[in-house]
Each structure stands twice: as C-alpha cells, then as structure tokens.
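Hi F.,

I've been meaning to write this up properly since the lab meeting, where we talked about keeping a consistent format for the predictions we share between groups. The idea is simple: the sequence comes first, exactly as it goes in, then the structure tokens exactly as they come out, then a line or two of notes. No screenshots and no reformatting. I'm using this chain as the first example so we have something concrete to point to.
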Amino acid sequence: MDAATLSLGALAIAIVVSCTIRLHVGFLAISLAWIVGVYIADMSAAEVMSGFPTRLFLTLAGVTLLFSQAQANGTLDLIAHKAVLLCRGNVGVMPMMFFALSFVLASIGPGNIASVALMAPMGMAVAGQVGIPAFLMAIMIGNGANAGSLSPIAPTGVIVNGVMDEIGLSGYALSTYLNNMMAHAVVVFAAYFLLGGWRLLGRYHEGALVVPARGGGDAAPGEDGGDGAEGKAGAEDFQREHWITIGVIAMLLVGVILFNVDVGLGAFGCAILLALLKAGDESEAVKIMPWRVIMMVCGVTVLISVLDETGGLELFTRVLAGVSTANTVTAVMAFTTGFISIYSSTSGVVLPAFLPTVPGLAAQVGGVEPLAIASSMNVGAHLVDVSALSTLGALCMAAAPKSEDPRKLFNKLMAWGLSMTIVGGFTCWLLFTVLRIGIG
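Output, unedited:
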C-alpha cells in the first residue's frame, strides 16, 4: 500500500476517533502525521513539524484571549441582559431577539460556543416564563450563533479563512461570512414559523422578565441550569471596565476593516491594553481560552500537510469527485460534512479536513465555482450543530426550564440535527448551484 493511501487512511482514523471516543484528535493527528510522514513517506521530522500552522495558532490565540477577557469581566453578559429589554413583552419577537443577539455576539469575536454559553441560560429561562417551546428557543439561539460563526474575527472564521488562504481562495472572507449567515437565517426562520412561531407573535407578557444573573450560565446539566441564580434583566449598569472593553473591541474592528490590521496580532495588542488599563485579567482569560479546540485544529492541519506531501489529499479529492457532478456537488458536500459534523468537531476536524479538497474538486468536477463548494461545506457542517450531541445543543438542554421534559427535548434536537443533513444539502444546492446567491 502506497504512502498516499496510508496517509488517507490515517485521516480516516482521526475522523472516526473524533466521532466515537473522547481521545484528543489533534494530538492523535500529530502522532499519525509523525508515523506516516517519517516512517512511511521518508519525510524528516522537521518537514512534518513544518506543517504546524503557526500563523493560525497565533491568530486563534490572540482572538480568543481578547474575547475571553470580555467574557470574564462580564461585558458580553451585560450586553445580553440589556438587549432582552428591547422585546417589550412581545412573546413572538423574543426568540428572534435571541437569534439576533446570538448572531451579533458570535460575529464580534467570541464565536458560536461562547455565545450560546452566554445566551442559553437567559433564553431558555425566558422561554419557560412566557410559554415559548424550549425547542424553538434552542434552535433560534444555536443557529443565531452559528450564523455569526464565520465572522473574520470569530475563532471558526479565523480557521476557515486561514485554510482558504492556504488553498488559494483569499479575499472571500466577507462572502464566506455572509453566505453562512444567509443560509442559517433562511433555514431557522422558515422552521420557526412552520413549527408554530407565528402563533406567538400576537401574545404579550406583562411584567418584568427574570433571567439568570452572571454566573447562572455555569450550572451543570441536571443542576440549576434552567433558572439558577436569578436577577432582573438590566439590573446592572455598564461600569468603567465594560466601556473600555467595548471601546477596545470597536478599535480592533475598525483596524481590521479599514486599515488591514492583522486580526491576531491586533487582538494580542488589544488584550494587553485591557490588562494595562485594568479592565481585563489576562491570567483569568487564559484559563477559559478554548485550548482543546485550538490544538485540535492545529494537529489536524499537521496531518493534512502530510497528506498533501504524500498525495493523499489528491486521492481524497478524487474520491469526493467520484460521487459528485457539477449539478450535485454542493448538495453532496453539504450532506457529507453535515453528517460527519453531527458526531465530530466542525471547526477542529471536519472543515480543516474537507476545505483543502475544494480547488481540486472544482477542477475535477468542472463547471462549479470553488466558493460554492467551500460555502456548502461551511454551511452543511454548521447547520447540524444544534443537535443534542453537539456542544450547542447540550448547552441549551442544560439550561432548559425544569418544566421541560428533557427526553422530549433531546429527541427533538436529535431529529433537528439529523434532518439538517438533508435540509442543508437542499439549501446549499438551491442557494449556491441554482440561484448562485453570494457566489458572483
């Protein structure tokens, strides 16, 4: 068996392991890259290690450090509490508000998981008080966060844009973000109204809403996740450290958008500025940074670089091209990435493994834009991420009101995640192949 086949087999092992056991797939991928690269493909250890994505690592570390500070000092939580007041008692508007708020929070930097961790305790508590089905609130919060997950300054956006830069698809950061946002908005708002959300629009809730205060989001499943510590929404005002944090984040956004500041290095500078101004604690932020995901992405990228050297990536591309045509490739890729993503990490495993195949896949299939294929992979992998097996779905379940039957909610979220493989395939085919929206 040649090195290309064995390297592709190593990737298959990494994907299967990520779907079945809790072994850290990033560390496994590095070990497999070492074995295949050095002992099968005659690469040197230095050549294997050169595949470590230094730039991606620094960018992810900088962005997550900054927004972990904003999370630790309560800025993001306080913004969310204030936004709840904007619904003015309209029950049907509340899930839409939580979609929008989750989207904005994910877009400005924390990413989808951190945003759902902030929003789920509030959103699910509000749902219990005003009679909104927990399932509807869960999919609005989860898909809102996923809609913003490919922002150029969000962790998953950093990962995806880094990979796309490596494969020659630079300059599509905004299109990638907007395509993902559009697909999630279309799917979840259609589902919201089809599954009964329209009946809520004529209802109003009188009186103040009580939502979990800061710290309520940390309850573990089965403890006090639904209505843990309580406090009136908006009971606290922005303090000096919150305004400084908001200003520093705004400064980073302006620098990235208008002055081409490198987002990772700029984020490190902003994080240090917060610490110097005593508005953020970098030591506390380091503790809550998603190191597991960061190393998962970097480890899988090392293995992908070995695949590229041995010809395994080309072999993987031929396999994918063999089951696709120009008319079906967007649907097939959305379904495939979605199905794997139900059981595996979207940002850590699925997208780093599949996106590098895009240029070769587009060339072999013919008649389809690489951006259409990449967007289908991004959307398909994310649409399933509110299943009960995903982190987002689990966070919503943990925060569900005590009156909610956990088994029924689990079953509904599982059905949602599985159905999104089909819905994602159709949606991507319609948007990116038939209508060609956002493709150019």
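Notes:
Residues 214-235 have pLDDT under 50 and may be disordered.
The chain is about 70% helix and 0% strand.

If this format works for you, I'll send the rest the same way.

G.
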